[in-house]
Here is the input.
Amino acid sequence: MFMRVLNKWIQKEPSKNAITILKDRYFLKDGEGNYLESTWDEVSKRIARHVAAAEVNYTSDIEEIKNAEEHFYQLIKSRIFLPNSPTIFNAGKTMDRQLFKKDIEETTLEDYKTIFDSRTKHNMLSACFVIPMDDSMSAIFDAVKNAALIMKYGGGVGYDFSVLRPKGSSIAGTGGKSSGPISFMHVFNTAASTIEQGGARRAAQMAVLRYDHPDVFDFINSKKDNKGNNVLNYFNISVNIDNPKEFKKMLEENGDLTLEHPASSIRKTIKANDLMNKMVENAWKTGDPGMLFLGRHNQYYAMSEHTPVTATNPCGEEPLPPFGSCNLGSIDVAKLVEDMDLGNPNSDDISEFQEIIYWAVRFLDDVIESNIYPLKEIEEMSKKQRFIGLGIMGLADALYKKELPYNSEQARKFMAKLTAELAYFSHVASTELAKERGNFPDFQRSKYPHGFIPFPMLDDEIDEDIKAWNEKIRQHFQGEATKYKRNVQTNTIAPTGSISNLADTSSGIEPNFLLSYVRYMTNKEGDRVPLSYINPILMEKIGTNMTEELKAEIIEKGSIQNIDSIPNEIKKIFVTSMDIPPKDHLLAQHVIQSYLDASCSKTINMPKSSTIEDVKAIYLQALELNLKGLTIYRDGSLETQVLTSASKE
Ligand code: ADP
Here is the structure.
């Protein structure tokens, strides 16, 4: 069963674009910079073998370990499932290459043990971390050092700066005044800028501040002069509004908000609306700050009574407690929809999708063991709660293939059912693993023994399929999950900014930003050569009607909405981020979030012409829905936007 769909994709080699990225960043090199790898096959084998070696902790049956390796290899080689970048960079790194060159038939139990025992600090496999901050100079600089260690190996870090006393508060030891959280953010930013990201990527951090911290306005303004790469450029910033509904009420009543801090005598009273207006104005200007609803995160987190989450990783999809870490992996649903009826609770293919999810969950659970953690405290927390983040990528391409416009009710139902299916089967897999390997050590203290469901779900009324998923979910969490759970959380949808390129698919749950673009590559002679890309699903749909003139026009515009010769039915389906009204971005996030125990990375794209009032309407609506946070981006508001259509270059 497992092999039917995987076999088809195992045959397909990564595109030229994907190979270029592999060469640039992922193929292992020796100390002198010579490549040790040149194919995706070698990379897949390296990752699968390194991670499967963790199974020596559970069995001495070599066949069982090889079986796990084989499943992991097939998932990765087919690019139906990819782990987060640090796993691809760092699995097997600095180990004996011969152990990875052996055929699987010749690999012995000793080999797997050697791989497991020879792990070093270079084998850091997770993308997401949160580290604590404490209101003392030595604790702050400890945090700088800890963050540096994480970023060096390609991990992203989040911090809650709320614990730092506000600017101007007294410091007992020196008789001086504190310089406040924002001044320390600049220290972290400078540290991040000096860190080589394991040779592979620049650093990324998230700073969180509570909405009632006395320095909240300085925080909101801290990136207002950012033009894309100049102010706190290694940070995303988010204001934590613990209880969004209560905040909304405060806004409606034009209520007062007291800004205060337990370690300071500073107190200010402001209008909640002034805070909202400032956030909105700056978000309109630069995209920052976003909002984060940590109260809602904790409501759906099974350990919130003991270790509440305090921040998220840089892209916002993974809330974590202090010293928490999470490793992510994503299933490419665009590949699967060609042969599987995803989201349908009565589908004949359901067991095949379940099997893919089971092996993906097992892989991520094995990563927890085969990982080397940058700090002892992170290792302890990660092993006590065993966070994993299985998500999807390729949603937009899957919708093109299914001919469902991203901004339609039908598409939203599909998104909800698909996420419900993912959430259900990944939790079932985590329960199966717990039966063999034991519960996460904090299980008894968690909410699971009491029938807790870790996400809000949608109304049964929506349709029969949603009702069926809801029933299965309720049964699971009121039944077996009260006894067995290997992982405190199982689902996260990452941006998949790099790995979606390796998989030749659209990123995460985002619509395609452009249907076409031009990328400049430098050839052997050192000349810059333009390479044009047009979404292959669109190419296929237009078929023989794709003339050279039409191609040129699509590349010029990036979207097909204003091209007269393309029929309306095609225009409706092949929408891009900018073609989709912001409220439909928000509703997509809402339905998907309803079935995620962690969160998802989603940007609410807005047209350049949007007014501050338009942004405010989105901010207000976000307070009402099943969201755990909000990030908006108004087209063109930063000078160094990452992707632009050819016409704008
Ligand atoms: P990838 O596709 O490379 O696996 P994603 O775009 O899905 O990565 O991002 C997942 C998470 O990885 C982010 O939320 C962040 O925690 C971390 N991350 C991404 N890019 C960086 C970076 N440049 N530096 C540090 N961490 C990063």
